[in-house]
## 1
Amino acid sequence: MAKRKGNRPVYRKEKSEEEIKEEEEISKKESHRKKNVRRNSVLVVAFSTVFLAVMFIGRWVYAVQTGFYDTYVLVGDDVETALEGAVGLSPSEDEQSELNSMGTRWDLFTGSRLVDEAWCVSDDGSKLHGYFYDNGSELTLIVIHRFGLDGTADFLPGASIYEKTGCNILLTEARRHGESEGEAFSWGVYEKYDIASWINYLDANTTGSKYIIYGEGVGANTALFAALGQLLPESVQAIVAESPYGSLHELAARNIFKWYAVTSFPFLNAVEFKVNSSDNGFKVGDTSLKDAVNDAKESAIPVLFLCSDGDDFIPNDYTKELYSNYPSSQKDIITGTGSHGTVFCEKSEEILDWISNTLGSS
């Protein structure tokens, strides 16, 4: 059929089979090219997305790994911020009122007595600092604080225990806390040996010959590590262990989300890799008090375990499990109903009676 161009018809030339095949081949190639372009575009977008996600997660892994290590092993500048973000350390108004009352009694105790600065040297040469209230007693209470505190922090049960027993009180400062030295804070691994160093100091500088150890949190773990490791002399009459827990892994696995708002995997794995590959000489597995309890022989030192049902920082299940498996016939447990650190407020009479009765039978 002809088309007109002006007044003249224009006839379209019929295509040959070769031309048709050539055009089809060109069309196929163009279609294939467009598919490749679309596929490559999808791959570029996917790769970019994965790359950015890996970079983002990697940055967070590094930040949490470094932040946790610097804070909880090197006890760096972020301790206060980290503890402010920790869940379970905020008592209710009623509990705070009781704690304030105990704080006032402790202030009256410290304000009416001179305090001596105490120094001892650990087995590895680290200088350890503490504060000593000498009441002229043959009995000394050795206090091992929880993570992030030091010897200047209020020891709220102190006034009550003194009134019951008349004891001297030594407020120790753990490695890298307060004025104490140390390459790292090892969550009880090396600190357990430091208790023996403090006892040697007291033996050499006081007339006392009997000791009670009171530890909270990691301080409780440290005291129990020392007892299970047969590092304590017979002069240690009793241990009060408030809120001990199974291991650093157990505690961090539960709380790392609450501390950093991230999942345990892969962040906890990264933290443990950094600890295990450091040159500080201990691994996360070494902090397992649960393993030490399961592996130890009978411990001769009486132990009082303390915990609270409402503790959202160190759940009472951790403490109760340790109590159940602790290898000693001389063990007891007192459980409060409040939040972390409030058991002495609620159960002070029972705790003081246990201390008095244990000392009387020693």
## 2
Amino acid sequence: MFVRMSHWKCRKEFWTEDFKLFNKGAIPIMKNHSGFIKAMLLGGRNTSERIAFTMWENEEAYSNFSRHKDLEKIIKMFEHMYEKNGSPKPFEYEVRAES
């Protein structure tokens, strides 16, 4: 398995809109890509910090998605919510162990 975690900062007035857009916009797009397993949006109630967590069957599946225009489409979808200098910073990981 392979995981992408993207850290970003969301303006506080979008506390409820961010997860709605994630569920109705981003997840359906990712579901159309082979090897997609799961996605979650994480965020603390009293912070602007967000983490978009996506899980893929393998690195190749993730790489195919990351090169596709759909990833840029998702990033732009949330652009109006980003704090200044708060755009996504991705971290990519191979899953080394799981339970």
